[in-house]
Amino acid sequence: MLELERKLRANDREYNLSFKYATNAIKTSKYNFFTFLPLNLFEQRFSYACFLHQVIPEISSLSWFTTVVPLALVLSVTAAKDATDDINRHRSDNQVNNRKVQVLIDGKLRSEKWMDVQVGDIIKLENNQFVTVSARSWSRSRSTTHRPHFGQTFPLLLLSETNLKVRQALPVTGDLGDDVSKLAGFNGEVLCEAPNNRLDRFAGTLAYAGQKYALDNEKILLRGCTLRNTEWCFGLVLFGGPETKLMQNCGKSAFKRTSVDRLMNVLVLCIFGFLALMCTILAIGNYCWELGEGSAFTLFLPRQNGHDAAFSSFLTFWSYVIILNTVVPISLYVSVEFIRLGNSFYIDWDRKMYHSRSDTPAEARTTTLNEELGQIKYVFSDKTGTLTQNIMTFNKCSINGKTYGEETGPAERKQHTETVDFSFNPLADPRFTFHDHALVEAVKLEIPEVHAFFRLLALCHTVMAEEKKEGQLSYQAQSPDEGALVTAARNFGFVFRSRTPDSVSVVEMGRQCTYKLLDILDFNNVRKRMSVIVRSPEGKLSLFCKGADTIIYERLHRSCAKLMDVTTEHLNEFAGEGLRTLALAYKDLDEDFFLGWQRRHHEASVAPHQREAKLEQLYEEIESDLLLLGATAIEDKLQDGVPQTIEQLSKADIKIWVLTGDKQETAENIGYSCNLLSEEMNDVFVIGGNSPDDVRQELRNARGSMKPGAAEDCAFLPARILGKSAQAIADEAVNGDFGLVINGHSLAHALDRSMEQDFLRTACMCKAVICCRVTPLQKAQVVQLVKTYKRAVTLAIGDGANDVSMIKVAHIGVGISGQEGTQAVLSSDYSFAQFRFLQRLLLVHGRWSYLRMCKFLRYFFYKNFTFTFVHFWYAFFCGFSAQTVYDELFITLYNLVYTALPVLGMSLFDQDVNDAWSFQHPQLYVPGQLNLYFSKMAFFKCALHSCYSSLVLFFIPYAAVGQAARADGRDVADYQSFAVLTQTCLLFAVTLQLGLEMSYWTAVNGLFVVGSLVMYFAVTFTMYSNGLFLVLPSAFPFIGTARNTLSQPNIWLTIGLTSILCILPVVSYRFLLAWMGLSISPTVLERGTGRRLSSCVVDVDFLPRRRFIVLRLREPTTERASGGGGGTRSKLKPHEASPGLGLPG
């Protein structure tokens, strides 16, 4: 039965058990000792379903071990992986469930396991201890800064933030303290929301002693958090085990599949259809043969009773399904997982992606998306903390129409400017620097507006202060912005000292003041502002508010119009310098008005329905007719290497969109600073319309400027087979580079269903896009829009909780482990510490992974198709009897032993160019975006090549041994000799093909290739020996065949001829490409110029219609630079003899 609301009573287990709430035990494991085998086999039912029909004697012409050995290997490897994962989950569950916590039972505190805690229990938590359940904060100790009933939590597991969150108890329960007898006698009842996964809200009421008290998110401790700055805390258990918000958020994430996976699924279906076609052709052939030749053959092998030609063809169909099913071997998927795992380790082990300052390595948090990293077309990035350092410093401000901090500028100017002396303030932070002495003078002159400005900064926040020694303050802020503003107020004489749930202590110019904290109207992504209502020591009621300037301006009194215009100019100047801005305002409150508002606020806070809407209406009422004080400007510097990274990614034809909550001017300035926007661009369009019609017209005007005469309607790409339902919008080429900047309110209209395609068309024609003032939801909507209507791979990168939505929506999510905590990291597929590592992740690891996977798939299909097609041709010469052309042992070991390690070696170690060349020529990344290395056309070419090779491998040996004789005159044209010759030719041919595919030879690769051939001959001569035949004659019938066959010179000539003929088309094709100047082989480059590549420069151009990349070699020459520097300057000229070099599509 669906639970709509939760009722519980403190200290009454019998009452609470009647509701059958979940216990606090958690279970994330899938199996136990008894269910592992049946459940795991059921999950792998597709694997053994492909094999089990092969053991039916009537239709199988293969021995049991050809089925059991591959099946056992596949099932064992998968089961071992699943068992290991589940054992780790069991260990984690046991560790968590058996943790100890003190529970109040029968008037005494008892140590109980976490799993035994029940809803309605009162538990005791201590400092630095994990929160056992989702509990309501009941009472707290005096913390290290002497704040009664007040503390902080460090959300380690659930919120995944490294900054502290303030949580406080209700005064009515806080007064109970740690008196066990009072706590045991408490019988309050809680009515709250049902279990859900919303981390940002909670609604409930506490009924006690005839009164109702509101419960919200600020009074709830969530399971997985850690208690800090408080010696102890009592809490009432509201949710346990699987009903806690932590476990509610541990649901299955959407499984991400790569484009290669989706293509493979389509190809596998096509292959199954082709398999059915081949088997049907051979079954028809068997029927015709039985009607014709079969009647005479029955003299040698009589038919069984009831087996006519039709029934024989039916059995033949299924027999050939068994023999030819190697076109889709189940080992393909196992091999793919091994390759992905290996390439994931390369990312984890890459020292060049390790950030030593924070001791943070790169981490591949998934192993299924590596090759997708080589196909990224769109990158969606947050700004703060992703492109910037998220280390805030108070830089400038505007107070009552006057700006301060004008002398702040580049580092060179700061070095020649005397910093402000804060020695007058004994509580100043020595690390804080400021360069405008006028602001300190204004503070000392006690200008009222300046004092009010800093008083607001000292009061309107949720920062926690810790003072271990007298005068040594340490601030813990929920965001770096708040910490920077409170620190600035501290240095200018308004020192935030401490706080309690109902008061804030501030030292104002050396005078201790305690303000009574009446209410906090907290910040969220919708409100975009924060307010506090305080009573001064003199009894004056005031509301202080800070937030985004657009939000504050809407709530100002009309008398502030002139000041607002001046402040707006200052804000634009600050934003133009790339500074983050906030507007500050205040309001004095009437006592009677506030009392009435407070009463209505209490009624709304305990309302069972529409509580949030009612509270928001009250917030709007009191946050009106504000008086403007000024604005702040905070500097957030770019991370190292960001401009270079964006420039490299742009050269790789990757389009970068920045989605930020900052002002337009700030975002534009950062865009120019990080090379996202440039002065060389033809134009940068700004979309700022306030109505749908204005936005649509601005988008069309921009599109017309970029491409005059562009059609009004979108051009759609042809629908894909088994593709997504929405039609993809085709890319539109433009002449020149353009940028697009769009505001949040305009973006809201642009994302409407009626306009989203217009917006997408215009944005995709631009080289760079910046979306300003966007919400987390809008970030996800933008990413989803591109995913829906573009055939392109998207990547989202961010560092904070507000980036989680777009990280989960994108094909690839990347988390930056920075100042905002690790929630983005925990939701991501890949993580590292700095944005600059993104270029190595994509241009090196991504491109290599994509290239290796494509080579693996092409070669894997080639070797298995070739192996299988030989059976098909042989069927026409064996009466369609489903006899195999190879020895059964060879069939068993072909994919498992003889060809497994060489292809894995290529897939793990191959490189077409090294990492330095990947950075030097980022345009080499483009083929991955276009799916040039593996596509339906590439698969079709692979199948044609396999068909040709199989014809050579069957008919050349067939003709060679048909009339051949040994040196002693004996005949070699027997089935066993033909089987040995054919399988040996096959193995040599596919091995040579592998050598042609491999670009980068290592000792390991060489060992795998040579070792596989050595293994083949060792196994063959051993299994065909006299000794094994004497031990078990029925299992080893090929006695002496290898020795007799491979000792003949004509056999080796046949092997050589078939191998050469199989690789001849590939060698000829590549020779023609090189001769026509369409090859990017480093060897061709080096030989064609007679110089090493390191001394040359390559221009890379992309020609869409010809579908290949053209590289032109240029010779670097130097000339003496003009001027007195005496240095040299590189001058490039085209090399006369070097043709265009390209990669064919």
TrEMBL record:
How does the entry describe its membrane topology?
A: Multi-pass membrane protein
TM spans, by residue? 266-289, 309-334, 856-877, 889-909, 938-958, 978-996, 1008-1031, 1051-1072
| Positions of region (Disordered) | 1118-1145
Spell out the reaction equation it catalyses: ATP + H2O + phospholipidSide 1 = ADP + phosphate + phospholipidSide 2
Enzyme Commission designation:
7.6.2.1
Say yes or no: keyword Transferase present: no
Which terms in the Gene Ontology molecular function aspect does this entry carry?
Answer: ATP binding; ATP hydrolysis activity; ATPase-coupled intramembrane lipid transporter activity; magnesium ion binding
NCBIfam families from the UniProt entry: ATPase-Plipid, ATPase_P-type
For this entry, the protein name equals Phospholipid-transporting ATPase
